[in-house]
Prior knowledge:
twelve-stranded mixed sheet; two-stranded antiparallel sheet; single chain
Amino acid sequence: MRTAPGQRVVVTGVGAITPIGSGFEGLWAGVRRGTSAVRGITRFDPSPFSSQIAAQVDDFDPCDYLEARRARRLDRFSQLAVAASRQALDHAVLSLTCDEREAAAVYLGSALGGIAFGEEQHTNYLARGVRGVESTLALSVFGGAGATNVALEFGFNGPTLGNANSCASGLIALGEAFRLIRDGRAEVALAGGAEAPLAPLSFGAFALIRAMSRRNEDAPHACRPFDMGRDGFVMAEGAAMFVLESGAHAAARGAEPLFEILGYGTTNDAYHMTAPLPTATQAARAMTLALAEAGLPPHTVDYVNAHATGTPLGDAAEARAVQLVFGDQAPGVPVSGTKGLHGHALGATGAIEVAITGMALRTGWFPPTANLDEPDPACIVTHVPPEGLTCNAAIALTNAFGFGGINASLVLARAQLPTA
């Protein structure tokens, strides 16, 4: 069965492996707990770098999700992608027939993919020569490795796409999979993001351009979105994957939607590799395009989940974009970002924050921005209060903006009854 263009797209399963909790409920529990996972790095010696902190996932065992031999053949990036996908499929209670798997898609975003594994193998090569290099290296570092490993693990034969659109990668994967299903070219997709960047050179490259916070002595409070004291982002690792289905497919099997995807927009600043366009017009246009695709005017948005990395220029530009989109109505739209809790897992973060935004819609509670002690007057938005915000919300907008001027936004809705 093929769905007609314009079908509803619902999320029926979520998998998440993050520094603050795993699984849909575990991630949300970490958000409600409100305790930052940012600490001094223990994965390697960070002493050569000005930034020495990160949000690590320290309780992940790939053998909880993969047969041991298979786990050994995958690098950490692909392990995270497959594990989060298995969580999502289990959460959705989804079992596909052979015919359904034939068309099922996998869309995965990651800024760096298997680069950390490549770095590790280069170190081995310098120490021991070619005999010290894992035979799986070539199969781990190409851009589509994570997506194809997910497809291989679950037998999905439909379109498989791995994108590397910097920090917007995971959200872009979701947006493109949304359109695939909406337009009737697939009925089921696994989509999201995964990132495993915590290796010396991969990490140090961002420290060299002074993009990361240097608040090493106060790690839990280092990531400070919209705050006067912000000085850069805090790197993290993690993954979030989603089962997307057409409304008709979900209804036919009696699945309960967790939330819906209504619209998606993406643009490019075409301005600078690291600095956002000062006018923020292209970030605003991504948000406007997403709302237009959803068929919604700005005043219907109940909440904006901001990209909000804690960089001086990025947060100010995003606040300016919110003002451009909502205009006189901006004071009535609460805004917050959660990276102060779980850090910035680059291409995976947009996907992680889609899960958080979806849960916020389900529960009617929007999280505050962690570590926001002194709001910067240059970031004029209506901040969610420190205790969070309880409201009967239906529509949320979530953003992911990345290096290279890549902007992406997704419109989510509280789930309705599982009908076609």
